[in-house]
Amino acid sequence: MGDFDLRTGAELLAPAPLFNTTGPQSFAFDDSNGQVYTLQVVQDGIRLDDEQEAVAYDDRKSAGDMCLTRLDSSGNTLGHMYLRGFGHGISFGVEPTGQRTYIWLEGRADPKNGYGRTVVRVPFKDGTVLDSSDDSVRHFEPVPGATAVCPALDLAGERVLVSHEEAGEHRFSVYGMADFLAGRFTPAQTIKAGVQVREEEWFQGCALSGDFVYVLTGNPYTGKNGRNPRKSGGNTYVSAIDVRTGRAQGRHKVKVAPDLPYREPEGIAVRRAGSQAALCVGFSVKAKDRRELTVYRFTG
């Protein structure tokens, strides 16, 4: 399906703890430095340095407060930063540039639901707290009035993918990166998600590679009498949409690692090693006192 074979996969990242105990929402690769970044909602009961008191998880979620963790390829934590008021972190991108690493993510979270309404590009600064409203944060609005906005990057193709809700429809728009940074928001392609994101399945991320947008959907396991019991093998699906035509090019059930505890699909991204590319799917899994991230890769 697309450029990748989703019938078999291999573990790329063993279950790894993040800086906070909450579950991962998505991940992205810094292939130049062999690192993985992941976003999560700030955990319950944390009081950051400039806050008067600890904040509850539900308040963090509705405010769009996230923790960004930087991991090495083995899952060891290398750094973190807090991003307040940005969004939910369904999808994001990492752009290494010289001595700096820029994070592309949603911004200006909607207080009604905690999801972003703009796209931002901010430098990673270990141990810091950054607010979406800070003067240093530049907000891009490729689709004014859009909701549930989240970006992904195709660095090899120098493109930006923006997932968004517009006029009651879920859409994906593709932009040249240079044009996007210059504020020129005429998309090269805009396509509708259509049945690739089904009502009963949660949208869990998107990625852009070559001629295809890859869409991840699914839910965590439920009890045996629920809609997604373990015996079903889960309902994690990856769908491909051809950006040239907007047509669906297949929908594949991801059957890898069915015995993971909890096993909620959380994030999809492309990892590149030289000329080789792999489509990677992340899962949130349960550990003793926290959620952890594990990632599986699929090659062509």
Describe this structure in a few short sentences.
This protein is mainly beta and 300 residues long. The chain is built from 2 helices and 21 strands.
Highest CATH level, the class:
Mainly Beta
State the distance separating the first and last CA atoms: 9 Å
Which spans of ≥5 residues are poorly predicted at pLDDT below 50?
A: none
Spatially, the strands of the biggest sheet line up as: 2-3-4-5-9
CATH topology grouping: Tachylectin-2, Chain A
- Helical stretch count? 2
Number of domain units: 1
Shape: globular
Order of helices and strands: EEEHEEEEEEEEEEHEEEEEEEE
Give the total of beta strands.
Answer: 21
Structural class: mainly beta
Helix content: under 10%
Biggest sheet features: 5 strands, mixed
Task: Characterise the protein shown here.
The protein is globular and about 50 Å long. The longest helix is centred in the N-terminal third of the chain and has 7 residues, at about 55-65. The mean pLDDT is about 95. The chain has helices at about 55-65, 175-180; strands spanning about 10-15, 25-30, 35-40, 65-70, 75-85, 95, 100-105, 120-125, 130, 140, 145-155, 160-165, 170-175, 190, 205-210, 210-215, 235-240, 250-255, 265-275, 275-285, 290-300. The protein has a single domain (about 10-300), classed as Tachylectin-2, Chain A (5 Propeller). About 5% of the residues lie in helices and about 50% in strands. The protein has two helices and 21 strands.
